[in-house]
Amino acid sequence: MKVSAADNIRLIREAKSFSQEFIAKKMKVTQQAYSAMEKQPDNMTLKRLKELCKILDVDLVTLLGEDNVFVQQNYNQKGGQAATQMVFNSTNEKNNETFQAYIISLKEEIAQYRKIQDKLLGSKK
What confidence tens digit (pLDDT) does each residue in 41-75 have? Predict the structure, then answer.
């Protein structure tokens, strides 16, 4: 199952234990503005995406959750157009590490909740 770019950004942010407020402050926007960007990353400018990559310490391909990204830039020149095409391939190794860290933190959180549950159930006996 493919994770959407919005979900991927949220998962990376949460895996790093960053709040929306923290990211918003780093980007010099309100939490509400950052929340809107995170929910609809397609509307973010390239400058904002690069800024978010820097804060989250991931590359753009990892941030967007893409295995392959195709970028085409066209430049108007005298006598016609010239196009530069680049294809970036990523193994998503950083992405895998981020998700593994997130899974570990979730397992730890589950263990804490089980201890609380055991204490609560034990006190009812």
Answer: 888 899 999 999 999 988 888 888 765 444 444 44
| Domain edges within the chain | 5-65+91-123
d(CA 80, CA 120): 74
Distance CA 45, CA 30 (A): 17
Asked if CATH classification 1.10.260.40 holds for the domain at 5-65+91-123, the reply, yes or no, is yes
Rounded Cα distance between 13 and 38, Å, is 10
C-alpha 6, offset from chain centre: 7
Residues in the chain: 125
Cα separation of 34 and 25, whole Å?
A: 9
Give me the long-range contacts of 77-83 (CB less than 8 A, separation at least 24): none
pTM: 0.56
**Region for residue 79 given its phi and psi (left: phi exceeds 0; alpha: psi -120 to 50; beta: otherwise):** left
The region that residue 57 occupies, defined by phi over 0 for left and psi between -120 and 50 for alpha, beta otherwise, is left
